[in-house]
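User: For documentation purposes, I need each entry recorded in a consistent format: the amino acid sequence on its own, followed directly by the corresponding structure tokens. There are two entries in this batch. Please keep commentary to a minimum and don't merge the entries.

Assistant: Recorded as requested. Entry 1:
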Amino acid sequence: MRSRTLTLLGLSAVLVFISATPALAAPKLKTLDEAVAYVKQLNTQGMPRQEIAAEVTKIVDSRVYNVNSWERVTKWPNYMPFGSYFSKDEENFDKFRAKENSFDNDVAARYAWDSQYGQCEECASLSYYLLKQAGVDGNVRIFASTAGSSGHNFVVWGLKDGADPNDPSTWGDDAYVVDGWQGKTLDKDAAAADKYVSNGGEAKVADRTKAHDKTATVWNTDSSSSTYTGDDCLMEFLFGEAPGGDNALALARALRDRVLARSATGRTMITTYYSVSSWAMTNMFDPDSRTAQNPQRDDLETAQR
């Protein structure tokens, strides 16, 4: 009995040490504003993009416990038998996810910082928020991949104009994945091979930035170097310019933000939609003349003229 107790205590100590290791290497930042100021300082000092990206990854990785990875069991009381049933953090996380605005990057970033709890979506929002608020140069985007059982969100910073989200080889030599959930900073080659990002091309990747930041611009892809259309929302493509299209899109976004985003199943459906939408835009429509294979929209545009 005594040996079992000592073994359990030893295992608990190891888990606590492992979970604390990233934090030991990260700067001691107490507030989200301090974290933004720190990243802004690195940028002002002219630190290379790759090093700043690595620092942001480190900050997010050390700050946020991942609800849906092994890291979850390192937080008290989760590493005790049935401990998660008594965890207020998990209960509060479920309540946060049920809120209508939990999709917004600034709301999710502040929640992840204050609660120190989240999944890849919250980690991506926090990374995005830190970089945008610090005023860094270069494109900062939130991408979603179909990798894993429910998809994966991450940030890409420094994306080359016209790059294909679904093809890391087009992202540019100074583009880096900032993935606090994995605790990894990846260049385009490493991103292509990473199982949670592109997985050797098997996983489909789509731009999800506007879903998290309504002030962001739509990502435009150079069709001459890619088959990707640059528009990962099939609904926006079909109804964006149609009479009454704004109302249809408003209803669709309300369904996404107010209903689907409130549950894990709903969020999986959202990720699946963007991935299927990206595939449809790539394979069903001609990138050089997108209305050519859409007779219904052709007829509509002719009537509008």
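Entry 2:
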Amino acid sequence: MSTFLHVLFILILAVAAVILLRKGINFLIQQWRRRAVLPESIKRIETLRRVLRYTATVVIAIIAGTLALSALGIAIGPILGTAGILGLAISFGAKNLVQDYFNGFFLLLENQIRQGDVIAVADKAGLVEEVTFRYVRLRDYSGNVHFIPNSAITTVTNMSWEYAYSVFEIGIAYRENIAEAFGLIRQVSAELRADPEFSQKILDDVEIAGLDKWGESALILKGRFKTAPLEQWGVRREFLRRLKQTFDDHGVEIPFPHLTVYAGQSKGGGAPPFHWISEEKHRAVKTTRATRKTVKNQEDRTE
């Protein structure tokens, strides 16, 4: 009976220790959050909170289990020796699991991924909902959730680190004035940055790279905005909407793919005649051919 009470006492202490440690971690996190100024620091604090709570729970559970076994009179030494050998054998068969925890430790230590970031890893991209020593959980724009083992992460592309760039490519017709188009882009960008809804999201004036390339049907103008993290997509959508309206108001053509037919040129410099058949004439020719074929068939039957 005393042994049972001893084990029960150990379990009660373990539960109390978990509760107290979690409250202590939450208190510590709250103090850090009050001192944090940058959103990047807050993200890292929230990520560490989850990891610390998980680690504390696992450590206390192991200690409580060991003490409970000792109270029951079970020798811990042979178990630990067997566990060490078994763990060594398992590590060879489950090396990816070991690598998960190893990679996860350095991902958190180096602050590469934080909860709330938008990242691309292992051919998947989305919002980071959870970071542990074992995996990273992402949710993409369609709502799909991806669980990515840390051992599969070799390269991290973080799209929300300190700031972002909203890159745009605008196509205008070849006959349009490029300088006028640049002026309208600057005008729209200035109006957008002056808007109270976007003034905190855009960190600097628009940066126009220039004429980027000659497309098949358009001249491609390229530029970018420097924005706050996670705001690059919303800024780009609103900018394109306003620019479309401004181009329409000023008669700037936004071209669509089209085809120019060229009849060729002779060695003497003259162009051969280009025969154009209208739709009405094409129907008339088809009707005439059908009539001739019908008459010929009737003549063949008569003969």
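Summary note for entry 2:
The CA atoms of residues 118 and 127 lie 4 Å apart.
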